[in-house]
Amino acid sequence: MKANVGGFDKIARIGAGVVLVGLAATGTVGVWGWIGLVPLATGLMGWCPAYNLLGMNTCPMKK
């Protein structure tokens, strides 16, 4: 698995994931909030399978 999720993208994914999981854990948004585990995991791993399928990459290029 080659990293395909860059800096700002990682921060946004982790932030959104933490917020959604936190809201789901407190019962504010219901069960659907657990979907926040997906962006949280992809942000922490630095790899997104959907980016592979779409041919996207937000990582900075190595010199």
UniProtKB/TrEMBL annotation:
<dbReference type="Pfam" id="PF11127">
    <property type="entry name" value="YgaP-like_TM"/>
</dbReference>
<feature type="transmembrane region" description="Helical">
    <location>
        <begin position="12"/>
        <end position="35"/>
    </location>
</feature>
<keyword id="KW-0472">Membrane</keyword>
<dbReference type="InterPro" id="IPR021309">
    <property type="entry name" value="YgaP-like_TM"/>
</dbReference>
<protein>
    <submittedName>
        <fullName>DUF2892 domain-containing protein</fullName>
    </submittedName>
</protein>
<keyword id="KW-1133">Transmembrane helix</keyword>
<keyword id="KW-0812">Transmembrane</keyword>
<feature type="domain" description="Inner membrane protein YgaP-like transmembrane">
    <location>
        <begin position="1"/>
        <end position="62"/>
    </location>
</feature>
